[in-house]
Amino acid sequence: MGIERSQIFSSNIIVGDFLQKKLEENRNLILTAEPFMNQLYNFVKGSNFFAILTDGTGCILSVIGDEGILSEAFALEMIPGASMDEAHIGTNAMGTAIAEGIPVQVSGKEHYIQAYHRWTCSASPIRNPKGEIIGTLDLTGYSDLVHSHTLGMVVAAANAIERMLEVKSYNDELAIAKNHIETIIDSIPAGILTSDLDGKIKAINKSVTDIFGYDEKEMQQMKIWDLFEGWTHVKDHLIGKHTFIDEDVYVNARKNKLQLNLSAYPIWDGEGTVREIIYVFKEVKKARKLTTRIIGRQAIYTFDKIIGKNDRFIQTIEYAKKIADSKSTILIMGESGTGKEVFAQSIHNYSSRKEESFIAVNCGAIPRNLIESELFGYEEGAFTGARKGGNAGKFEMADGGTIFLDEIGEMPIDMQTNLLRVIEESTVIRVGGSKQIPVNVRIIAATNKDLRQEVEKGNFRKDLYYRLHVLPIYLSPLRERKDDIPLLIEYFMNTLSKRLNKRPVEISTAHMESFIHYHWPGNIRELENLIELIINTEYIPLDIATGNDQKKIPIAPVQENTMTLDQVEHHYILKTLKKFGGNITLSAESLGIGRNTLYRKIEKYNIDCSFMEQRSSTEPSHLHNVVPF
């Protein structure tokens, strides 16, 4: 390497900014090694030894030792910045330890240059947690004073430095992970805290202090039961391995008592014992909106999914789009099965409220004694069986979004007064309460009744009728949209056959003419049910096959006793049940419907399955009063 034995100094010594940069780059190694260098030097202090720390290239970073021998070393420029690798100073303990990757002791004339022959150097490499050499630790003294155990002390000190570097690296990773988790938790718009089973609060996020009004130090000096009522119930629930999700609780905020939504989760140890509890507090309104999005009815239909080319129908769609963002109440009128809820959902999804809740309520399906609490909610203790903490009604759940009141004509007259107040004042009052709760809700109502006639009969309030009739939409019956019937048949045939996992049935021209001439009292819903029946049975009821006007389509011999759609469905379900001996699972699978749907059909047609058990019917495949395709 071109090094002369008479050389005294290292051929590479950095100073000034270059040295400062080198020291900064190795700051962690220097700070970690310093106490161990001091400890190593203290063992030999007063015996003319000095200790050296280098980086992974052999550049001296730090030197400590006895003054006498240190002066000699400095005279040889063994100072911070000097390179002690073999390429610049020849064989020596530090450079050779780096080259060989193992601890080494170089004594007397084993040094290449003559200037070091009076010394014995003992050095050990220092590795980072990845196993890479990042430095060396060296102890140098006069050869006659060096003991064979000197190298062992250096190795022990280097190993201790490595362990400390490993611990610091692990702690740094833990600190980063902790900061990462805390940042994520602090970014969650919900109050999150943990406690042990003695109620001591262990950790909190930023949102908790915002919700409760206490600072972090105050909260950590409190017990969990100081913050909300019913903590023992939550703890017992979780210890008993039960869930505690989305329950309303009263909390003791700094300024007043609040009602919040709480979910609690246990933290288990390795033995399956609950050690701590995580509490997630949300504002009741936000929690309910989230719940509605997850389990509630959501608006899935949009205008581009509505099938139709009829001119009048297209005009209705365009009108609905124009009024979608209006704050005024919309009233959708039309016969059963014309798609009133489809339009309501499409209007919601076309409006600026599309990201908010869509709550659908069938006013005709809710028992009269429950409709008030269902719509407007109730307070705790409002009636026997009332939920602890009370319950929000549909209007509160729809806050910010849309509420769809289907079959509005069925709403009891006394409830109509409450609905009128909500429309006029944009507030609701829960059953058993007196507080007015503001709600920002756009109302879409729907009816298959003539509300004007209902007003004349005294069944519907005139003032409410005019409040609802601000933006009316009338949906044409299917018999007035004959040009849409082939489109709808094609759509239902494709979608239903895929859902039922059956092949589409080809509709002949004659049958298509029959469908166009049929009067469709059930409108689109009836058409969809018919297509499902055709896919499952490949039969069609005669009254549909022959149309509803004077023109008869000669597609099959007309039999005297025709069957209605319900009669055909009844007959086919009964036949299938007999075939499978009353087995619900097999029958439902054969029919291409769910078990629950089949149970509803059995109840609808009052079918007794008990006599079918343990036998299978071999009835003829002939179905009476139907036309095969």
TrEMBL record:
Please state every residue range assigned to the domain named PAS: 177-219
Q: Does the keyword Chloroplast apply?
A: no
Q: Where is the Sigma-54 factor interaction domain?
A: 306-536
What's an example GO BP annotation here? regulation of DNA-templated transcription
Keyword list (alphabetical) reads:
ATP-binding, DNA-binding, Nucleotide-binding, Transcription, Transcription regulation
Q: Which residue spans adopt a coiled-coil conformation according to this UniProt entry?
A: none
Q: Does the keyword Transcription apply?
A: yes
**Pfam families xrefs:** AAA_lid_14 (PF25601), GAF (PF01590), HTH_8 (PF02954), PAS_9 (PF13426), Sigma54_activat (PF00158)
- Tell me one GO molecular function of this protein: sequence-specific DNA binding
**InterPro entries tied to this protein:** AAA+_ATPase, AAA_lid_NorR, GAF, GAF-like_dom_sf, Homeodomain-like_sf, HTH_Fis, P-loop_NTPase, PAS
Q: Which domain of life is it from?
A: Bacteria
Q: Which NCBIfam families match?
A: sensory_box
Protein name, entry field: Sigma-54-dependent Fis family transcriptional regulator
Query: What species is given as this protein's source?
Result: Geosporobacter ferrireducens
